[in-house]
Amino acid sequence: MSTRFYPDGLNAAITTVVCAALMTLATSASAQLHDPATPLAVASKVALRGEANSIAVREMRIVRKNDILVVQADMANMGRTDRTVFYRFKWLDQVGNQVGDGESWKQMSVLGLGQQTVKSVAPTSAAVDLRLEMNVEPR
User: Fold this and answer.
1) What are phi and psi of 34, to 5 degrees?
2) Taking a C-beta distance cutoff of 8 angstroms, is the pair 58, 115 a contact?
3) CA pair distance 60, 119, nearest whole angstrom
4) Which helix (DSSP H) or strand (DSSP E) does residue 31 occupy?
């Protein structure tokens, strides 16, 4: 096997392109933890702990009322088997730090082919973003 050398730093450019392609593949592989029915814009707000197990966050509505963020998220069970979902909202400030003490984990059952809506309100007006942390288990 012979090594090819290209003029004017072309080797470095090729190496950079290959590394970028590998990083893209690695990122897309980790994004596949979400159920395919979860839109990508919503998936960016969801932090899964484990596999989605047929639970999709179909829609997330975030509004600011009286300078406080309010969120509603619709979780749908895409399978026929009942699932238990453990979830909490993590509120973030403008630099990504957690705001407040954090919520405790909540438990909810989502029946097969059913849908549930979860709601939360930010603890302070310093919250500008959020993550929905969730763990899904078979029932």
Assistant:
1) -75, 150
2) yes
3) 10
4) helix 10-31
